[in-house]
Amino acid sequence: MPLKNENQRIAFAMQQITRMAINGGYDHIAISNSELQVERYRDEYKAAIDGLVMTQVADVGVDSDTFRLLSGQENIFEVGTSQGKFQVSEADVREELESLIEQDILAPALPDPFTGSFPTQEQLTGEAAPEEIILDQEDIAEAKIASEDNARESMFETLALAAQRGNLSGFRAGSAKAADAALQETVDVIESDVVKLAFMKALLKANPDMRSSWLATYTTPVVGTNNQGQAVRGNFQRQTIELGNQSVTRLGNPRLDDWLGEDVALLVRNDLQNPDSVSDQFASPDFAGFIQSKIARSQAQKERLNAGDNELTSHERSEAELMDVDSIQKSVNKFTGAIDVPVGGGFVNIYDVKLPQALEKALASLLPAETSLKKKTKKVPVISIGIGMAEMPKGKAKMMRGGMSGGKEHMYSAGGMVKDNPG
Where are the domains of the chain? Predict the structure, then answer.
């Protein structure tokens, strides 16, 4: 029977490890905890995320949600969810759309292999791109204006069609596609997807207490060499993922804090609270650089606070308090002052408790009974009956000597003992 209980599986693994250590003549058994595992892969964080853009939206658009245009009211849309009903006006959506347009989200990504964050042809081969391939900037500008006008003109139609269907089918996926264009110039986006993203942002802004999620778009760094042997650095974009804000999303996606790590998420969330920044959007083309500069700024604010500076703003004070987090403190090298990615999740890992306990029990079970740490129990006589298979020799069984009696040797086939009575 397989071990279905997790505690049983852990106990079995620890027993196997202790037997291997004894049979192999090892002196120690070492099990790394969760903090050591994070430390081991610290540099992998930098290798996994280069740039990061996150946009906060309403967590709506599952199959059970309803969507309608309220009758008798001037272009008011209503979304019905398990949490309740939420309304947003066409004017709010249009305002959010203009904000996205100002961010050049509809700038065309025409087939130019020498733009964006990828290495240029000159970097790769040492040769300049042919003149006929370089795009006409006037054509790019005209295409961008045309896309922006189409988005404005089609906005109400896109929402009205969804209201006729009675649901927000495709709005989550469309918003994610539009968010892709927030980080890379080489990603194209269609007008209707930008409208869907504008709606999801406007709905949350009009109803700040409703459930929300983050659309996270990030790039992964790549490093190579060109034809001349020179190092070339670039990156490629990963598909946008949806992350829960305070809990998992309604579709079961993980929380933002679990994806980034609790302590790195503290830095990001603190930056989002900055009154000088947009609270529903985070953008950093160099995420590791952001972490380092954020900790350096927090360190400076902490020094001001410790020196008795009373002119710190509430946000500057909150930045100073970040240095009270143990793993953020440890990210600053005490000797060189260099800052690295914080190590630690900010939470207690249950296996940091379970594994040492299971190992202690496994070691105790191997001790002799008289030295065992377990509580001694009263011995109870038992009869043990075993059934097994054995190979018996052919022929008559040999008789065994059973002793001397009356001067004669007695032999028995099934065992026995005789002797003369005294006197």
Answer: 61-119+135-217
